[in-house]
Design a protein that fits this description.
heterodimer, A: abc type-2 transporter like fold, 2 domains, 4 strands, B: Rossmann fold, Alpha-Beta Plaits, six-stranded mixed beta sheet, 19 helices, about 25% strand, ATP hydrolysis activity (chain B), nucleotide-binding (chain B)
Chain lengths: ~375, ~575
């Protein structure tokens, strides 16, 4: 056979492989589970299960000497939606509960609370928190400070004695005015889910061919490496976009995440990321010959780095230098940045363009590596 | 005539220090004939197939397919050959037509050519009625035909079939041979690999492989002809025949001996005198020369059957209460609306070898599982030593030993650890465990391997170990699931030697098999077909029943085919 006739058959062969792959996807419930059920499940788990916001944190309030001022502050504290307050006269009453984790903190108003307040001195408020749960501890401290400030302001207005020249700090939170961590977590979760699904889809379909022995028959036909890879990529790319649609719909309508950027840019950006994730899956499949190994490797290579180094759960800036350096090669990191920007901020070129370029570069390198390592032979 | 495939000093190893899968092979494969690649599992057949198909790179030497080097011209070779891998290489979630279309697209069979080819192949394979059926829902025989059709789409000059007859019932196997012969007439060269030695006789030329080495190349008839005058059948030994076989084998003149139903087949050494009733010490036995088979030649070439005698592996059993130790009473198992086993009944007498014979999917595994206590019957009961497996499960199971098809050993444990574990699993402890383990180590000569991982043992030793584990608790009843399929003839003989010795001590054996050779060792066989037991009798009686003018000397396989066809005709007449 001449080289020309091999070439002319290329599109027919690619099309045949795409048709075959699509039929298999449609008939195989596991692809449907991976593409539709898994993203929904993971998103709900992340969206509802993880939150960095504290609502109705249980705290103990110790008022060592009841005065009108302390009572006023106690009421102000109870009126916020953050605290579930119990009162006592001695901190001893709360020590055991704090140790047992039944309450997350103790707020102590010292005996000279009213006097100090009167003097305009720093008031004697002590906050004891459970340091074994630093996240909640930080929240309690922060919220008490917030409550203190708003109470002071109220008192100020009530007395109309706010001193001129005093600095009035008013915080404004841009992009996420309600300071709901969910708004950051959902786009982050989507990126993690897409990473996982993309890698899993291609890794599984190729290793399945090895497991069932069909690869042997396939390799004995005149198909080329590139044709084989494209035949695997295209249908799974479409499937990945379906999974993305599920995620976006859930984000917009279940979690009420705003979409401030354009949908078109979201789709385009996702397409670029999908090509990275799918290429990782293909690269895995060049070594994994069983579906079990393939899924384990997808977990290890795609999911875990995505979880730890994408920056949506753990602050990359506070990691040690070697880990920070590692995070540079985690594709999910750039996708998280891009997604959070598109959802919460809008079409901001200064973020999206570099992220896109990096992802394009990654997918090119990964695909080239895959093409080089995909064997036309069985040994 | 030019050779389709020619190899020169071909060798292939998968790891630097491993034994090569193929060693220094120089051969030519011709067009217009069937070349058989014959040998037991692990002989290197599949490796050689893949080397020819340019799916593996040779480690040494070269291999040319139609004058093209497989190292550099793989793509061009792929365009000219048809290759059916083991398990047929079909997409089980695609329909028959979708599979054909896929391979037609990949191989560039388009337009009118495709229409004509499809029509021809569907008629040829008799699959026209099933084009919409998913490949996974086809029977083994139909899958095989579809795999063949996919491999033949582009009228290849060379067709490679890797173990096409594994897992396929005898009827489909016969059909496949017919199809292959009609291809030969069109000038196609076919390479057929098989572990079944009887298939070698269908080939114009064979390459006999054993452990990566070529034992013989050429016309199988030449190989068989060397054995003329050296093969005899001993008739009339009756119940004594197993003991007689064991005794006969002790003679240096006898290099091979197997059971063949009621008869014993004996092969004598080159130049040895023909056996007489006197020389074997059994006056009532008649001895007649018989034409040699390929397998006789194969075993002779490997130096004959290993001569070992089984030491005291099991104690002599008394005759018990005279009741049949294994009974199946109207065993029925339904999966939804599908009846996998339909009122199957049989009894096995003490010291009898009983075979469950049938094609894959016929219901023999279902029956076997019910007899082992692994699958609860929908109706009917299974009794071992008079105990119902589903009413007194632990007591009944303690009386049976079970050796699974893939041996169910722990590959990462050493031989000694496996033995210890299984002894514990059967509830043996302390002195009894030490005694049991010591007994099987001695009986099966396992001492040299005690500290080796069982996963790395050669097949024959794995089999010995598996059997040791199964009989550690000295069960009066032993169940074997396809114990020697794919095992080389020598190992198989050795294994049956062990089994025969146990039977001699009163152990009752039940075997499942789709392998006619194994069935020959049985006293009686039950033929299972489409969930029903369509015949239970001795192999000779079954053979005798189908004797006709067309087949004056039916083999057990002939009997099998005839009985199944009879059954089908009766079903059709009833419907």
């Amino acid at each position: 056979m001449s080289a020309a006739s091999l070439k002319s058959g290329r599109w027919r062969r690619i099309r045949a492989l795409i048709v075959k792959e699509t039929l298999q996807v449609v008939r195989d419930p596991s692809s449907i589970v991976v593409a539709f059920v898994l993203p929904a499940l993971l998103l709900f788990l992340f969206g509802f299960g993880i939150t960095f916001d504290a609502t109705r944190v249980k705290v103990g309030l110790v008022i060592e000497e009841p005065t009108p001022e302390s009572a006023e502050f106690a009421i102000s504290l109870s009126n916020t939606r953050y605290f579930d307050v119990r009162q006592a006269q001695s901190r001893l009453a709360f020590i055991d509960d704090l140790a047992a984790g039944k309450i997350s903190g103790v707020i102590v108003l010292s005996g000279d609370f009213a006097e100090r307040l009167e003097r305009g001195d720093t008031a004697g408020v002590q906050v004891i928190t459970d340091g074994s749960d630093p996240n909640t501890a930080g929240l309690v401290t922060g919220y008490v400070q917030g409550a203190w400030q708003s109470w002071q302001n109220q008192r100020g207005f009530a007395k109309t004695s706010s001193m001129p020249g005093q600095i009035d700090v008013q915080a404004r939170f841009w992009f996420n005015p309600e300071l709901e961590s969910r708004r950051l977590l959902v786009p982050g979760s989507i990126s993690l889910i897409m990473m996982m699904i993309g890698a899993l889809l291609t890794a599984l379909v190729v290793s399945r061919e090895w497991e069932r022995g069909t690869i042997e028959a396939l390799l004995a036909t005149p198909i080329g490496t590139l044709e084989f890879l494209i035949g695997k990529l295209v249908p799974n790319f479409m499937l990945g976009l379906c999974a993305m649609a599920v995620c976006v719909l859930a984000a917009l309508f279940v979690f009420d995440i705003p979409l401030r950027g354009s949908l078109l840019i979201l789709i385009g950006f996702t397409a670029v990321f999908m090509s990275v994730a799918l290429s990782i899956g293909l690269l895995i499949s060049t070594v994994a010959k069983t579906q079990f190994v393939a899924s384990q490797m997808a977990m290890l290579v795609a999911f875990l780095p995505g979880l730890y180094f994408s920056g949506f759960l753990f602050e990359i800036a506070s990691m040690p230098a070697p880990l920070r350096a590692f995070s540079v090669i985690v594709p999910a990191k750039y996708y998280v940045q891009g997604l959070q920007t598109i959802f919460l901020a809008g079409n901001i070129a200064s973020v999206l363009v570099p992220c896109t370029l990096i992802l394009v570069f990654m997918s090119t390198v990964l695909f080239a590596l895959t093409a080089r390592n995909t064997r036309q032979r069985l040994d | 005539m030019d050779a389709l495939v020619s190899t020169e000093g071909l060798a292939k190893s998968f790891a630097p220090n491993a034994t090569p899968a193929i060693q220094s092979l120089t051969t030519k494969i011709k067009a217009g004939q069937v070349t058989g690649l014959v040998g037991p599992d692990g002989a290197g057949k599949t490796t050689l197939m893949r080397l020819i198909a340019a799916l593996l790179q040779p480690s040494e030497g070269r291999i040319d397919v139609q004058g093209r080097d497989t190292r550099t011209e793989g793509a061009a070779i792929h365009d000219e050959i048809g290759y059916m891998p083991q398990r047929f290489g079909l997409y089980e979630d695609l329909s028959v037509m979708e599979n054909l279309t896929l391979y037609a697209d990949l191989r560039g069979v388009v337009g009118d050519e495709r229409t004509a080819t499809f029509e021809k192949l569907l008629a040829f394979t008799d699959l026209a009625r099933f084009t919409d059926r998913l490949a996974g829902a086809l029977s083994g025989g139909m899958k095989q035909k579809l795999g063949l059709a996919c491999a033949m789409l582009k009228s290849p000059k060379l067709l490679l079939l890797d173990e096409p007859s594994v897992g396929v019932d005898p009827i489909s196997r016969r059909d496949l041979w017919k199809m292959v012969y009609s291809l030969i007439d069109q000038g196609v060269g076919v390479v057929w690999s098989t572990a079944y030695l009887d298939e070698a006789e269908n080939c114009a030329e064979v390459i006999v492989l054993n452990q990566g080495r070529v034992l013989f190349q050429g016309d199988p008839k030449d190989m068989t002809a060397k054995m003329a005058g050296r093969v005899f059948k001993l008739h009339g030994a009756g119940a004594e025949r197993r003991a007689l076989l064991a005794r006969t084998l002790t003679s240096d003149d006898v290099i091979d001996g197997v059971m063949q139903g009621e008869a014993i087949r004996v092969v004598i050494a080159e130049g040895a005198a023909a056996p007489t009733a006197q020389s074997i010490g059994a006056a009532s036995v008649t001895i007649a020369p018989t034409p040699p088979r390929f397998e006789d030649a194969f075993v002779a070439m490997l130096g004959g059957q290993p001569k070992r005698t089984l030491a005291q592996a099991t104690r002599q059993r008394s005759d018990g209460d005279g009741k049949a130790p294994v009974q199946a009473k109207a065993l029925t198992r339904r999966f939804g609306s599908f009846t996998a086993a339909d009122h199957i009944s049989f009894e096995i007498a003490r010291g009898e070898i009983f075979g469950l014979l049938g094609p894959n999917g016929a219901g023999k595994s279902t029956t076997f599982k019910m007899m082992c206590g692994l699958l609860r019957p929908t109706e009917g009961s299974a009794l071992v030593d008079g105990l119902d497996l589903y009413k007194a499960p632990s007591a009944a199971r303690a009386r049976l030993g079970y050796m699974a098809q893939k041996f169910s050993l722990y590959g990462d444990l050493s031989v000694a650890q496996n033995l210890d574990f299984f002894a514990g699993a059967y509830g043996l402890s302390g002195a009894r465990r030490r005694e049991a383990v010591g007994r099987v180590i001695e009986a099966f000569d396992l001492k040299p391997f005690l500290n080796e991982n069982s996963g790395g043992l050669p097949l024959g030793f794995k089999q010995r170990l598996a059997l040791s584990c199964a009989i550690m608790h000295e069960p009066p009843v032993l169940f074997l699931d396809e114990p020697t399929s794919g095992v080389d003839p020598l190992t198989r003989r050795e294994f049956w030697g062990f089994i025969n010795a146990m039977v001699g001590r009163g152990v009752t054996i039940m075997v499942t098999t789709h392998f006619m050779d194994e069935a020959e060792y049985c006293d009686r066989v039950a033929l299972i077909y489409r969930g029903k037991c369509i015949a239970v009798d001795t192999p000779e009686a079954l053979q005798h029943a189908v004797k006709s003018k067309d087949i004056p000397e039916p083999t057990l396989e002939d009997a099998f085919i005839a009985l199944v066809e009879q059954h089908d005709r009766a079903q059709q007449a009833a419907a």
